[in-house]
């Protein structure tokens, strides 16, 4: 435990030591640390999960960091290509980036935290030269097998040197839902700046904490997500590095993401559109002290309603199963005080997760085909960010199911 986790004393963005506690979820198992049997799952190590706020720049971040080797290098099974809506999003994103940044065929694109190469495949389709970087061996192996050059390592100065030695500096660097995962965030931004040629582009998407707060999607808080971003602290940091902020926008991916488009100019300018975005953000819940003070109670009430909905069904003899074993499911279950006595098993499309057990709750993960052989008629969608995809799939195969989606708002659908 002492070697695996350390307390964070200074802000990852501005290095100020003015850190105050925002919310403490207690000790929680690592969401991706799926176990081989129920006993191991119940005994899985737990680590502090507390969210802090920097008093100097306002950046939200975890107060403890688990060693990245524990998080990614051994038992990390998330794959970008599993969700159809995510694949579509990457295709649309690549089309936007090529047009918006004027990328010519043969331009060099690098993806930081490229996972299984799904995003870079979309850029390859547009004629780009690509290279990914990802420390997860499973995902990087799949990418390389599919013809997407991927360095299986953590993104750092050494990785940048390797890439430049092979390909030269990048015309365009991208990253998706990864820059929340970075411990030394300032160093990562410096390394990305060094990787990009003068006049080159940097675009990234990351969970937008304004949307997390507004919708109550608290379960996107987990140990891999060290940083909880909003625009103002990032703009301050990135312009100081010499990036111009060209655009900022919000989309619905992963429960609400913010997209930045930046250009390496050395001047640190902010466009009128970005200036207006910042002004709008300052009127949001991010700066509403009363709302922030009541957020923990709002979560407790939401989870009590969810727990009651599940137990109402189990108490009348119905078998409840779940769909999807994302990282977020572990905190969701813990906050709702649910376990294998409430949810019989979890259905999962990712074969690398099936046959294992969720840490903490000990719930078994089984192939999605197992639903047909069970008597379950209530399905809780843990992977709520893919609820529409999952519901559409179930509608093609089954009738008489009740679907429960716990977040952003609890809802039930009968198919």
Short description:
This protein has 415 residues and is α/β, with parallel strands linked by helices.
Model description:
With 415 residues, the chain is of the alpha/beta class. The protein has a domain at 303-414: NAD(P)-binding Rossmann-like Domain (Rossmann fold, 3-Layer(aba) Sandwich). Helix content is 34%, strand content 25%. The protein has helices at residues 38-42, 68-73, 84-101, 118-125, 137-145, 157-167, 185-195, 209-215, 231-241, 272-281, 289-293, 295-315, 328-336, 387-397, and strands at residues 5-7, 19-29, 46-54, 60-62, 64-66, 108-112, 129-133, 150-151, 170-176, 196-207, 227-228, 243-251, 257-264, 320-323, 345-348, 364-367, 378-381, 402-405, 411-414. The strands form 4 sheets. The protein has a 7-stranded mixed beta sheet with strand order 8-7-6-9-10-13-12, sandwiched between helices. Strand 14, helix 13 (328-336) and strand 15 form a beta-alpha-beta unit. The model has no long low-confidence stretch (mean pLDDT 93).
* pLDDT averaged residue by residue: 93
Shape call = globular
Low-confidence stretches: none
Radius of gyration: 21 Å
Major β-sheet annotation: 7 strands, mixed
Would you spell out the secondary-structure blueprint of this structure?
Blueprint: E1 5-7, E2 19-29, H1 38-42, E3 46-54, E4 60-62, E5 64-66, H2 68-73, H3 84-101, E6 108-112, H4 118-125, E7 129-133, H5 137-145, E8 150-151, H6 157-167, E9 170-176, H7 185-195, E10 196-207, H8 209-215, E11 227-228, H9 231-241, E12 243-251, E13 257-264, H10 272-281, H11 289-293, H12 295-315, E14 320-323, H13 328-336, E15 345-348, E16 364-367, E17 378-381, H14 387-397, E18 402-405, E19 411-414
């Amino acid at each position: 435990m002492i070697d695996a986790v350390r307390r964070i004393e200074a802000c990852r963005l501005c290095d100020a030591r003015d850190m105050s506690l925002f919310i403490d979820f207690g000790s929680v198992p690592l969401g991706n640390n799926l176990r081989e049997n129920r006993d191991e799952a119940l005994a899985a190590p737990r680590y502090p999960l507390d969210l802090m706020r920097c008093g100097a720049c306002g950046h939200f971040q975890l107060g403890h960091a688990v060693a990245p080797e524990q998080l990614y290098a051994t038992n990390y099974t998330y794959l970008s290509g599993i969700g159809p809506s995510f694949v579509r999003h990457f295709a649309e994103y690549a089309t936007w980036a090529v047009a918006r940044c004027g990328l010519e065929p043969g331009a060099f694109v690098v993806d930081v935290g490229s996972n299984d190469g799904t995003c870079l495949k979309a850029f390859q389709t547009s004629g780009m030269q690509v290279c990914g970087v990802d420390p997860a061996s499973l995902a990087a192996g799949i990418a390389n097998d599919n013809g997407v050059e991927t360095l299986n390592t953590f993104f750092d100065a050494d990785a940048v040197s390797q890439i430049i030695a092979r390909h030269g500096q990048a015309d365009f660097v991208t990253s998706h839902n990864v820059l929340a995962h970075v411990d030394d965030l300032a160093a990562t931004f410096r390394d990305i700046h060094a990787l990009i040629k003068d006049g080159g582009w940097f675009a990234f998407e990351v969970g937008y904490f304004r949307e997390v707060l507004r919708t109550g999607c608290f379960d996107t808080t987990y140990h891999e997500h060290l940083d909880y971003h909003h625009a103002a602290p990032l703009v301050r940091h990135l312009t100081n590095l010499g990036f111009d902020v060209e655009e900022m926008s919000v989309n619905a991916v992963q429960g609400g993401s913010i997209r930045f488009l930046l250009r390496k100019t050395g001047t640190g300018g902010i466009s009128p559109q970005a200036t207006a975005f910042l002004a709008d953000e300052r009127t949001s819940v991010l700066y509403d002290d009363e709302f922030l003070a009541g957020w923990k109670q709002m979560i407790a009430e939401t989870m009590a309603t969810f727990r009651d909905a599940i137990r109402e069904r189990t108490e009348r003899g119905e078998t409840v199963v779940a769909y999807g074993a994302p990282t977020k499911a572990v905190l969701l279950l813990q906050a709702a005080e649910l376990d294998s006595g409430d949810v019989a098993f979890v259905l999962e499309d990712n074969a690398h997760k099936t046959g294992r057990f969720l840490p903490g709750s000990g719930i078994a993960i089984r192939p999605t085909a197992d639903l047909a052989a069970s008597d379950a008629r209530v399905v809780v969608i843990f992977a709520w960010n893919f609820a529409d995809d999952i519901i559409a799939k179930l509608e093609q195969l089954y009738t008489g199911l009740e679907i429960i989606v716990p977040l952003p708002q609890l809802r039930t659908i009968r198919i």
